[in-house]
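User: Quick sanity check before I run a bigger batch. Here is a single chain. Can you write out its predicted 3D structure?
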Amino acid sequence: MTVRRRLTVHGRVQAVGFRAFVARSAQSRGVAGWAGNRRDGTVEIVLEGDLDAVDSVVRASREGPRSAHVTAVDVVEEQPEGIRSFEIR
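Assistant: Done. Predicted structure follows.
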């Protein structure tokens, strides 16, 4: 079953390689979507793919790379749109 999740990741998540970390995590699991920095200092992530794979990337996003410090992750379920690749925005 294909699912889509939109995450807002809070904490020290910009300028620490967070988007590249998420991209590697997603691509290694066959998950499509994108990750981008927001003006408020958070990182917004859209993930689309198999339920177990998406949940795995969500769990990885709660940790982030070693230099990050994640304080909260907001997750919203959305309707899949058929995204086929992952990009860093």
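The mean pLDDT is 97.

User: Great, the batch can go ahead then.
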